[in-house]
Automatic annotation (TrEMBL):
Main localization (coarse): membrane
Annotated InterPro entries: AA-Vitamin_Transporters, EamA_dom, EmrE-like
Top-level taxon of origin: Bacteria
Database matches in Pfam families: EamA
Subcellular location: Membrane
Protein name: DMT family transporter
Keyword line: Membrane, Transmembrane, Transmembrane helix
Domain EamA: from-to ranges: 4-133, 145-271
N-terminal signal peptide: none
Topological relation to the membrane, as annotated: Multi-pass membrane protein
Transmembrane spans: 31-53, 65-84, 90-111, 120-138, 172-193, 199-217, 229-249, 255-274
Record lineage: Bacteria, Pseudomonadati, Pseudomonadota, Alphaproteobacteria, Rhodobacterales
Length: 283
């Protein structure tokens, strides 16, 4: 029961990032670039504090995947915030989730991993779902492209971090090393003065739902295993959509739910082991 509750709390944190970002940027409480910067700084501070508390000091995790990790994280943070100027919380989370999974699939192909037919079929379903979101009459192409870019960034970040011996320390270093990359870009874009609510939402997103959320997720992953972790993450876009409806009055329409069924069904088909799909019991 404790594992289920902690996993649900983590999924709520991940979904909350979409709701908090949309809540802050959509009404203009803070600019999109400013939100990304504050979120990054708050997340870096929280993760650094957690590493110092748990480890009693800093240890360099090594250069492996560091450049790709920092670049991917920076692209994710900026694209995520900029996209929420024109997307509702649920649609943004769905596009992000689908783009991450497609990027991970492409990474497997580039690495020449064996890709079974079921995974091809799942990736195809997810792409059809994303195409439905992007069909004429849905959100504008620019926000969708920005969120898809954010998903590619997070996918690259995830691929770069696979096999890390200490994912929490690696994530803390990636956040810290992203600061000198993101901050100059933000200064070049020009910063505006946010209001107190916008800053507070960005700090909560960075320190709590990102920093603490990632730390808790890495702690739970060994207990969950790959199959249950994949299933758990399927809930994030749905939770974000429900949060957007409850807090921001953004009611998802039939197009969203149809696309969500295709994307999440495709990801489940591609991610879960065959035994998990045919067994009546949990893995």
């Amino acid at each position: 029961m404790r594992l289920i509750l902690l996993t649900a709390l983590t999924m709520l944190a991940f979904a909350a990032n979409s709701v908090l970002n949309r809540w802050a940027v959509g009404p203009g409480h803070i600019g999109a670039v400013e939100f990304a910067v504050v979120r990054l700084l708050a997340g870096a501070a929280m993760l650094a504090g957690l590493v110092l508390w748990q480890r009693g000091g800093w240890a360099w995790p090594g250069p492996r995947g560091r450049v790709a990790g920092v670049a991917g994280l920076s692209a994710y943070l900026l694209g995520f915030s900029l996209a929420y100027r024109g997307l509702d919380a649920g649609t943004g989370a769905l596009v992000l989730f689908g783009a991450v999974q497609v990027t991970m699939f492409a990474g497997a192909l580039i690495a020449r991993e064996a890709v079974p037919p079921r995974r091809w079929a799942g990736a195809g379903l997810a792409l059809v779902g994303l195409a439905l979101v992007a069909a004429p009459g849905a959100a504008g192409p620019a926000p969708l492209a920005l969120m898809a870019g954010a998903g590619v960034g997070w996918g690259v970040y995830s691929l770069a971090g696979r096999g890390s011996a200490d994912p929490l320390a690696a994530t803390a270093w990636n956040f810290l090393l992203s600061v000198p990359l993101v901050l100059p870009l933000a200064l070049l874009a020009g910063l505006s003065a946010p209001d107190g609510r916008g800053v507070a939402l960005a700090v909560v997103s960075g320190a709590a739902t990102s920093g603490l959320g990632y730390a808790l997720w890495y702690r739970l992953l060994p207990q969950l295993g790959a199959a249950r972790a994949a299933v758990a993450q399927l809930s994030v876009p749905v939770i974000a959509a429900l949060g957007g409806a409850a807090l921001l009055a953004e009611l998802p329409g039939p197009r969203f739910w149809a696309a969500a069924g295709l994307v999440l069904g495709g990801v489940a088909l591609a991610s879960l082991p065959y035994r998990s799909l045919t067994s009546r019991s949990s893995p």
